[in-house]
């Protein structure tokens, strides 16, 4: 018997893809994937293994992503659309699972949506969890560039060092398509030097074992989603600072970072964390982990999250 089900649900004018791992009578965690444009539904079963039956897990492909994109190729993502989608999604889950509030668990890009929503709609959120939380995008890129340069120098890679030395005034004052290409090149170098993933986890193998059967068209949708989301990503790079949305959370907040993550380094979020006003706030650093803490160190990740939810009397 399957422990999950899939469906398309009418959300904000389009049919969006949902994957549920239900646990009767348990709190609902809504997972907000990264990217933008990068579905993580195929990894859902791994989180189900971590959380077991302590909660219901729900994944959905955001507008411009994955199977939602396949079903709605002309529905382009914008921050306003995605926040309205998220609101309608939570309203749907409240009805579906007969619950007043939802736990939001955002990863990377998903923390942009999740934190804004938690600040704007506290009445619908019981706990907010940010994994690889995005804070100040400019500071993030400054720190990441310095860390990458240091790593390349320490390994005496003259070829890659020349590439970095050729990049002047990074991050740029204003992001555009040209500078975004540099951003993507640096992302590949971060991967190469272990600044995005500390432990080499076979993500492809995890996806292949997924019960939802990741196919070629899903891979193509991933490439299309990344390209389609470029204007959105440029807007975020140019202007996003979470502090502009507020510092007062009406629910417990919890942030998890990998010690070796230079996609969203903890240092770029620490100042904002100190300003946060919340009933409970915690920040934890998982050692020997990068940007994908839940897959690089799954046991440590589960040990970090489940006790916190226990403290909040939710599991």
Q: Which value, in Å, is the CA radius of gyration? A: 19 Å
Number of domains: 2
- Helical stretch tally: 13
CATH second-level architecture of the largest domain: 3-Layer(aba) Sandwich
**Spans where pLDDT lies below 50 across 5 or more residues:** none
**Mean pLDDT across every amino acid position:** 92
Oligomer: single chain
Taking strands numbered 1, 2, ... along the chain, how are they ordered across the largest sheet?
1-2-4-3-5-6-7-8
Order of helices and strands: EEEHEHHEHEHHHHHHEHEHH
Q: What's the β-strand tally? A: 8
GO biological process, one term: proteolysis
GO cellular component, one term: membrane
Protein name: Alpha/beta hydrolase fold protein
InterPro entries: AB_hydrolase_1 (IPR000073), AB_hydrolase_fold (IPR029058), AB_hydrolase_sf (IPR050266), Peptidase_S33 (IPR002410)
Q: What key phrases describe this protein's structure?
A:
Peptidase_S33; hydrolase; AB_hydrolase_fold; 44% helix; 315 residues; Rossmann fold; 13 helices; globular; alpha/beta; single chain; AB_hydrolase_1; 8-stranded mixed β-sheet
């Amino acid at each position: 018997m399957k422990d999950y089900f899939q469906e398309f649900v009418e959300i904000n004018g389009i049919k969006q893809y949902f994957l549920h791992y239900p646990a009767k009578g348990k709190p609902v965690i809504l997972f907000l994937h990264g990217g933008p444009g990068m579905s993580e539904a195929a990894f859902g079963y791994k989180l189900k293994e971590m959380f077991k039956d302590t909660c219901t897990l729900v994944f959905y492909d955001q507008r411009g992503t994955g199977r939602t994109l396949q079903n709605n190729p002309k529905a382009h993502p914008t921050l306003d659309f995605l926040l309205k989608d998220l609101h309608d999604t939570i309203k749907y889950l409240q009805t579906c699972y007969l619950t007043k509030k939802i736990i939001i668990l955002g990863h990377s890009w998903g923390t942009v949506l999740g934190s804004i929503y938690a600040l704007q709609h506290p009445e619908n959120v019981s706990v907010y969890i940010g994994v690889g939380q995005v804070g100040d995008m400019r500071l993030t890129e400054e720190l990441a560039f310095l860390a990458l340069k240091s790593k390349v120098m320490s390994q005496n890679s003259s070829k890659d060092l020349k590439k970095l030395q050729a990049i002047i005034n990074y991050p740029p004052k204003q992001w555009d398509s040209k500078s975004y290409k540099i951003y993507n090149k640096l992302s590949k170098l971060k991967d190469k030097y272990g600044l995005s993933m500390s432990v080499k986890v076979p993500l492809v193998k995890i996806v292949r074992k997924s019960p939802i059967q990741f196919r070629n068209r899903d891979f193509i949708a991933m490439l299309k989603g990344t390209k389609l989301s470029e204007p959105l990503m440029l807007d975020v790079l140019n202007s996003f600072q979470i502090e502009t949305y507020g510092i007062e959370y009406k629910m417990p907040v919890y942030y998890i970072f990998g010690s070796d993550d230079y996609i969203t380094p903890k240092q770029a979020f620490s100042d904002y964390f100190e300003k946060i006003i919340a009933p409970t706030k915690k920040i934890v650093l998982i050692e020997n982990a990068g940007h994908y803490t839940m897959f690089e160190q799954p046991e440590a990740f589960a040990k970090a999250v489940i006790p916190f939810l226990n403290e909040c009397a939710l599991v």
